[in-house]
């Protein structure tokens, strides 16, 4: 049974590349925002998305290698490693995205910092947080696929 998003498949490679691209975009956009380091949630977002980007890029390279060499990556030990890594990075990404999203909502809708301080890069904070949520959505999908695959290995 080949599940969409499985390791060593084209869908798995595209899923990993999507995770990497959105995580890297989140890091790049947030690090371009002046003053992001003054807020713990945004620093945590960069750390979490950096880890997500490294994990996803590593697994994308492994998927690419498996596709090129026509190897299967469906051993129980390897899939178990993928499951643990995906779940850890997915939970960290979700926590970081939610905390950054909470700060963005606080700044814009609750405390009105964005309308009072035109130098605060609220749009940049929002964009980086949106990219982080997109990366998390792909990461959570990957984690569920890996868990399902592990349960159904022969």
UniProtKB/TrEMBL annotation:
One Pfam family cited in the UniProt record for this chain: CASP_dom
GO cellular component entries: plasma membrane
TM segment ranges: 20-39, 45-65, 77-107, 127-151
InterPro entries for this protein: CASP_dom, CASPL-5
UniProt keyword annotations, A-Z: Cell membrane, Membrane, Transmembrane, Transmembrane helix
Membrane in keyword set: yes
Record localization: Cell membrane
Membrane topology: Multi-pass membrane protein
Start and end residues of each Casparian strip membrane protein domain: 6-138
Superkingdom: Eukaryota
Family the entry assigns: Belongs to the Casparian strip membrane proteins (CASP) family.
Assembly information from the UniProt record: Homodimer and heterodimers.
Protein name listed in UniProt: CASP-like protein
Species whose genome carries this gene: Triticum urartu (Red wild einkorn)
Gene that specifies this protein: LOC125545276
């Amino acid at each position: 049974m080949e599940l969409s998003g499985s390791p060593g498949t084209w869908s798995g490679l595209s899923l990993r590349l999507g995770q990497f691209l959105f995580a890297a975009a989140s890091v790049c956009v947030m690090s371009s925002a002046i003053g992001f380091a003054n807020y713990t949630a945004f620093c945590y977002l960069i750390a979490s998305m950096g880890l997500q980007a490294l994990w996803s890029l590593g697994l994308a390279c492994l998927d690419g290698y498996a596709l090129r060499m026509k190897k299967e990556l469906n051993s129980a030990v390897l899939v178990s490693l993928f499951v643990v890594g995906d779940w850890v990075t997915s939970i960290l990404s979700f926590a970081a995205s939610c905390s950054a999203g909470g700060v963005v909502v606080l700044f814009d809708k609750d405390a009105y910092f964005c309308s009072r301080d035109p130098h605060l890069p609220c749009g940049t904070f929002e964009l980086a947080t949106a990219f982080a949520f997109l990366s998390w959505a792909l990461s959570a999908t990957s984690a569920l696929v890996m868990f399902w695959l592990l349960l159904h290995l022969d």
